[in-house]
Design a protein that fits this description.
single chain, 11 strands, 3-stranded antiparallel β-sheet
Length: 284
C-alpha cells in the first residue's frame, strides 16, 4: 500500500489500513465489490451508454479493420457519456484502488464492452492474457518474496451494466498470478484448466451494479460462454499510476510531436522515441 507525499510528490508506504477489497486486490490480484451502483443511478448510466452505441458507429481501432467484432466496443467513454465520466470517479471505486496506485492515479483507458447474446455473438471465449507488463519481469526460476507486497501499476475495473452469470462466459482470473512476473504460457493460452502455483481459474460472476477489479499483470480471460447466454455488458475503466501514460486516444491521433519534428523522423526507432507507438491493448 502507498500514498503520495506532498510537498515533493514522492510515493511512500501507507500507514493507514485499507479496506478488505483493497487487501484482497493486492494479495490475489482481483476482487469483486457488490452493488457499487444501484437503482436509478445504474438505470440512467445504462441508458446513456446504450445511446452512445446508437449514436456512434463501430470503433475501428484496428487500422486494417481486421477485427471481426468492432461493434462490441465503444472507446473513450468519459468523452462520450457524462454519466460514464461520473461513474469512473465513484468513491466506491477510488477507495479501493487509490491505496495501491496513489491518490493522483488517473484513467489510462475507458472502453465499454457489449458482447451480444448467443444468437448473434461474435466474440468467443478469448485467451489467457495480461493487460500490460509484466511490470516486474521474472524468470521461471525466480519467485516474488511472500513477505513483500507486489507493487501494482495499473488496475482494470469492470462496472457491470447487466448481470453476468456463468452462462455468459464471465471474466476469469488466476489468483496470485500477477506475482508470477510472466505472461501466461503461450502454449496454453486457450487452456481453461491453466493453473499457477496450484491456483485454478476463478470466474467473476457478477450482478448489475457490481464492480470487478483486477491488477493488469494477472492472468485472465473470458471463459467460453454457453450455447445460450444473455451476453455481457459492462463499462471498463483502466486506472494507472501518475507515471503511466494515458492511452485513451492512440498516439497517431494525440501526441506531443509538432509538424517540424514529425517531418524529421527517419526511422521506426525515432518514431518510438518521440512517443508515436503502435496501438496496444489499452488504446485498442
Amino acid at each position: 500500500m502507498l500514498t503520495r507525499l506532498w510537498p515533493g510528490g514522492y510515493l511512500v508506504p501507507r500507514s493507514a489500513e485499507a479496506g478488505i477489497p483493497t487487501q484482497e486486490l493486492e494479495r490475489d490480484g482481483a476482487t469483486l465489490v457488490k452493488r457499487v451502483l444501484h437503482g436509478d443511478e445504474l438505470v440512467e448510466l445504462r441508458e446513456e451508454i446504450e445511446a452512445v452505441y446508437a449514436r456512434y458507429g463501430p470503433d475501428y481501432r484496428d487500422a486494417k479493420k481486421e477485427r471481426a467484432w468492432p461493434n462490441d466496443f465503444r472507446y473513450e467513454m468519459f468523452n462520450r457519456s457524462p454519466l460514464a465520466q461520473k461513474a469512473a470517479a465513484h468513491r466506491g471505486i477510488l477507495d479501493v484502488i487509490e491505496p495501491l496506485l496513489g491518490e493522483d492515479c488517473h484513467i489510462i483507458a475507458n472502453t465499454c464492452w457489449r458482447n451480444p447474446a448467443a444468437t448473434d455473438s461474435t466474440h468467443g471465449g478469448g485467451n489467457w492474457h495480461i493487460d500490460a507488463g509484466p511490470h516486474i519481469p521474472l524468470s521461471e526460476d525466480q519467485r516474488w518474496p511472500d513477505d513483500i507486497p507486489h507493487p501494482v501499476f495499473a488496475i482494470g475495473v469492470h462496472l457491470y451494466l447487466e448481470d453476468c452469470p456463468m452462462s455468459s462466459g464471465p471474466t476469469a482470473v488466476i489468483p496470485g498470478s500477477h506475482r508470477s512476473g510472466r505472461p501466461p504460457p503461450q502454449d496454453r493460452v486457450s487452456d481453461v484448466d491453466l493453473t499457477w502455483q496450484n491456483q485454478r481459474a476463478r470466474p467473476i460472476v457478477a450482478a448489475a451494479g457490481d464492480v470487478a477489479f483486477f491488477v493488469s499483470d494477472i492472468w485472465h480471460r473470458r471463459l467460453p460462454p454457453e450455447e445460450e447466454h444473455p451476453g455481457r455488458f459492462f463499462l471498463q475503466v483502466h486506472y494507472g499510476r501518475r507515471d503511466i501514460a494515458q492511452r485513451v486516444k492512440p498516439t497517431h491521433e494525440l501526441n506531443h510531436v509538432e509538424d517540424g519534428a514529425m517531418e524529421r523522423i527517419e526511422s521506426d526507432r525515432e518514431r518510438l522515441l518521440l512517443g508515436l507507438h503502435q496501438q496496444g491493448f489499452y488504446d485498442g
